[in-house]
Every structure is written in C-alpha cells, then in structure tokens.
Amino acid sequence: MDPVDDAVLALDAATASRVRPALAWLRGRTRSMPPATSLVREFLLSELPRRTAGDGHEQHEVAWALGDLFAQAGFGELASLCRSSATHETLAVWQWTQSFVDVPAEFWHQAVTSLQSGRPGVPPRAALSLSSARALLGAVGAGLTLTADGQLPLATVLALDDRFRWTEEFPWMRAREERDVAPLRLLHEHLLAQQLLVRDGRRLTRSEAGVDCTDSTTALWRSLVDPSPRWGHPFQRDALGVMAASVLRSADFALGRIGEEMTHVLAGKWRPSRGSLRGTMFDGALQVAQAWYQVGVPLGWWDTGRGPADRRPNTFGKVAAVAVFRAVAGPPASGPPPRTEPSQSPPLAG
C-alpha cells in the first residue's frame, strides 16, 4: 500500500476527512509521493486560503491535519512545513485580507510573499537608517529643557541639522527653530508617539525603552517600525496594512496613487459614520499614509528619483513596510496556534 494511504488509515476520522481533499489536489498535480515541498507549500499558502475562504479556523486545522499525515508517513520535512509558524502566520494574514470585500488576491500577493521567508530581523546596515533617531535620543540624554512652546532648544536643533544636513537637502528650510526643520520635528513627534521620549511639562527625557534603544540597533529598529502605540485604532491599523501592501507592490511612493488604492480597498470594510465632519475615506487613508511616509524621511527609507517629490522605497523602506504588514495583518502571538485533542475545538489564530 502507498505509505500515504497507509498513514491516512492511522488517522482519526476528523483528521482523515480533512486530508483527503488536500491529497486529491496534490495527486492531481504529481504522481510521486511524497510530493515536492514546493507543491505542498503552494497548496498551503495559495490553494487552501482560496478553497476555505472566510474560515480561518478550518485553514489552520487542514494545515495541522496534513502535518499529522506527513508525520505519520515519515515525511518529517513536510510535516514541519505544515506546522511551522511561518505557514500559520501566512494563513492568518490571508484571513485578514479576506475581510476586505471584493479585493483580488493579486493585490496582496507581494506583501504576503514577503512573509514566507520567516521572521526577519533588522535590515542590513540598519544603523545608517537609525543614526538620526539615535542622535536625538543621545542629545536628550538625561534630559533637556524644551522652549516655552515645547520645541527642542535651538542649540540642539542646530547641532543635529549640522550633522544630518536637512536644510541642505531641503533648501527652503531655515533652522531658526525646531518647527523650521520638518525632518527633525517629525522624528521628535514619532519618538514621543512610540514612547521612547517622554515629556513632563517642559522637561524631555528618555523612557526606559528609549534608554535601552539608544545602544541597541535591533531594539531601536523594532520600536520605530512598530505600528503601536502611535496607530492603535482599528481603522488606522487596517489602513497601515493596506498601505504596506501598496508600497510593496509598487516601485515608488506616489502618495496620491497610494491614497486612492487604500480608499478603494478600505471601502470594502469601512464606511464613514453618518454626519461625520472628519472628511472622506480618502482623507482618513491619506492621513495615515502621509504620517508613515513622513516618518521615513529622517530615517532614510526613500531614494530620491527625479526630484524631492519622487520618492522610492529602498531596502530600509521595504523592510519597514514588511514589518508594518506583519504587525497589523498577522496573528498577535508568534508561532502557530496551539493544537488540542480532536474532540475539542482548537482556538482560532489571528
């Protein structure tokens, strides 16, 4: 008897019923058993989300059932693939994408593909991207006294501008106070929003996390690209995920085009509240995208093309977009959902 058929007979009835349709799909595409790893991956990450659209619970259960089958048959590598955190994270992400009505899978493909190589660390040479944030944290040190209107002292502004040449990159700016140097102001606001800096009246200090991040490239990168706590509202997080998918499928960051794509996708899930005076869906989406784009200016996420307005995500910008997409679309916990006995109902991941 075929070792796979023999393994099916050894499974409990519920598990066997889940693997038979998967085996039929696999055998329709290959005569050899065990199937190639690439074919099993295609089933798990492409076919399975389509055939069980809207039922994330079942997607995880089918993947686990296939893992049980391959383990029973002695195909350890395939069993590991079916049980891996990367596989279950991708399934959870596909479940999130399906919450947006009538959006084709092609829109999400590049972003989802970026997750399948495992959990990335910081990008190569990330210290270059983080140098301005680290310098601001270092300048704050044990504490700074802000101006009466809450700005950094002029001496600090001039020292940082002299180091990073922001007013040379943007010649229309004049470093007379912090608000004149937009990249520095935006960086200051982001470090406050991410709770790496803390204000107490006119006193600006580093938080405990800010102190830790000052000397750690890994910790600082993760803190700066984390959507929380700055963007905590469900609409903002959905908007960030859609924006990240748009960034990863395009060569440039054209804010108007990205805003239109975000509006079209978000409209399948969100509706403006009646009588709202806060603007349109496009306004809300554009506000989120613009804020995230502006964070990337002092962090060097963009390469300039034919002019200052022509910005294209470089390696730093793309890895930041992957981190955002992973955070807002994936499951809250790392690793696959826990498995329970067949007679129980396993929890839904994601």
Strand content: under 5%
Largest sheet: 3 strands, antiparallel
Shape: elongated
* Cα gyration radius (Å): 24 Å
Strand tally is: 5
Roughly what percent helix?
Answer: 55-70%
**Strands across the major sheet, in which order?**
1-3-2
N-to-C SSE series? HHHHHHHHEHHHEEHHHHHEEH
Mean pLDDT over the full residue set: 88
| Total of domains | 3
Pairing-aware structural class of the strands and helices?
A: mainly alpha
Instruction: State the distance separating the first and last CA atoms.
Output: 39 Å
Which runs of at least 5 residues are low in confidence (pLDDT < 50)? 340-350
Number of helices: 17
Outline the fold blueprint:
Elements: H1 3-9, H2 13-27, H3 37-51, H4 56-73, H5 76-83, H6 85-97, H7 105-113, H8 126-140, E1 144-145, H9 154-164, H10 166-169, H11 182-193, E2 197-200, E3 203-206, H12 208-214, H13 217-225, H14 234-248, H15 255-266, H16 281-296, E4 302-304, E5 311-313, H17 315-329
Antiparallel strand pairs: 1-3, 2-3, 4-5
Helix pairs in contact: 1-4, 2-4, 3-5, 3-6, 4-5, 4-6, 7-14, 8-12, 8-13, 12-13, 14-15, 14-16, 14-17, 15-16
